[in-house]
Design goal:
With 97 residues, this protein is mostly beta strands. It is built from no helices and seven strands.
Length: 97
Amino acid sequence: MKQFKAIALLLCVAGLTFAQNVSSSLRGVVVDPSGGAIPGAECVLVNQGTGAAISVTSDSQGNCVFPTVQAGTYNLTVKMSGFKSLESKDIVVTASQ
């Protein structure tokens, strides 16, 4: 049986305002339990209200960046082969963050 390691994700939300369209950016770092970066992880952010999904892949330093995220409440899933998936629910994104 294959053993899975955990994935941790540190999130930072930065507020932005574009004309009448209020949005933010969401950034995170995907790391293993020892703090090592996990490149190539699939990060999917789903808006609970609309069902719209945004998918990005973590870079060589484990960074995943969602450059434009509409204000709302989101669920986030992070997956990488050989690791246990991470699911985080009820992430509230506002332009004032």
